[in-house]
Amino acid sequence: APVVPPDLTTCAPASVTTPPGVPAAPATTVNCCLLPPTKPIVDYKLPTKPQIHKRRPAHKVDADYIQKYNKAYELMRALPTTDPRSLMRQADIHCAFCNGAYNQLGSTNKLQVHFSWLFLPWHRWYLYFHERILAHLIGDPKFSLVYWNWDNQANVGGNIMPAMFNQQGSALYDAKRNQNHLPPVLNTLALSDLGNTNLTNEQIIQDNLNVMYQSVVTASTPDLFMGKKYSAGDPEPNIGGTLENAPHTAIHAWTGSDKETYLEDMGNFYSAARDPIFYAHHSNVDRLWAVWNTIGGRRRDHTDPDFLNAQFLFYDECGDMVRVRVEDALDNSKLGVSYLKVNGDKLWLNFEP
Ligand code: C2O
């Protein structure tokens, strides 16, 4: 049977541990339980005519776009923490389903949305509602997230921390980032390159191209690319897909602050989504899933009913809790989401390892 939403009344403190690559510290706990819904939870119905959200690369947007983006996060940060749409509570959703605040329904095993086939669709839905909330807050239904185009190794590509997130005092800024990784330092997608300061830009780029090729082109099956099966009552999953395990995780670890015990914000699940750059990072993950679907004809997603019928909970733009299904997220065009193309994929699609 598919994974379904947990019993929200049984929330426990989430556990936080040091990620690989930082000095070990004792585990701790944090309370990131979801705010209880104020109305009965309804099944989310996709609009028949979806609002179009065209997501652009963060390194290409203009000053007006950035100003609007900044405004949206300013408003989101200003909401009281009793509002599920506030940035803190948005981040807690990630914490709750990643750091084990809930058990699976009717089971003593933790509910976890990473390291399995749930990773891609859960994060797609998460972005979908996050984007709608931001759009609602600034009263611009067309508002669209940007994507951090870290796979793009072209000259002046997206492979640095996008400038729009680096202005101190802006609502898009987060001080808990690795200060050694500000532009023009290239981001690294290879876990084995993290922390290695002896690499030339040429080497980083070659390694990045190789990681992209291996994780998106070579990984041709849903088990490899999306991650493995995870069903109702299963123990916590541990076989994530290549996109999740390699470039996605590397960007989290690369961005989080090495001065923080648990690599906050981006380097730890419980805190990652407190940083607005998280949503730009995940837009790129989501975009690359859609790119993968098109490689070599059409690469198919999992078709197991336990995948298609898995359900999650989110808050909509009014702050009401809704229930969504994985199957409804498989076609981005039904969600109104598309990604503006830039030339940069070609470099890794055609990479010769
Ligand atoms: Cu839910 Cu990038 O992790």
Layout of helices and strands:
Blueprint: E1 14-16, E2 28-30, E3 42-43, E4 53-57, H1 63-78, H2 87-98, H3 119-138, E5 146-147, H4 201-218, H5 222-226, H6 242-255, H7 269-272, H8 277-294, H9 305-308, E6 311-315, E7 321-325, H10 332-335, E8 337-339, H11 345-349
Parallel strand pairs: 3-7, 4-5, 4-8
Antiparallel strand pairs: 1-2, 6-7
Helix pairs in contact: 1-3, 3-8, 4-6, 6-8
Bound molecules: CU-O-CU linkage (C2O).
Structural commentary:
The structure is a single chain. By secondary structure, the protein is mainly α. It has a single domain, classed as Orthogonal Bundle (di-copper center containing domain from catechol oxidase). It is 34% helix and 8% strand. It is built from 11 helices and 8 strands. A 3-stranded mixed β-sheet has the order 3-7-6, covered by helices on one side. β6 and β7 form a beta hairpin. The N and C termini lie far apart (40 Å). Bound molecules: CU-O-CU linkage.
Biggest sheet descriptor? 3 strands, mixed
Percent helix, as a range, is 25-40%
Small-molecule binders here are: CU-O-CU linkage
The CATH topology is: di-copper center containing domain from catechol oxidase
Instruction: Tell me which oligomeric state these chains represent.
Output: single chain
Superfamily (CATH H level) name: Di-copper center containing domain from catechol oxidase
Give the CATH level 1 class.
Mainly Alpha
Distance between the termini: 40 Å
Tell me the Rg in angstroms. Answer: 19 Å
Overall residue-averaged pLDDT value: 96
Strand order of the largest sheet: 3-7-6
CATH architecture name: Orthogonal Bundle
Structure annotation, total helices: 11
Q: Into which percentage range does the β-strand content fall?
A: 5-15%
H/E element sequence:
EEEEHHHEHHHHHHEEHEH
Shape: globular
Structural class: mainly alpha
Tally of distinct domains: 1
Number of strands: 8
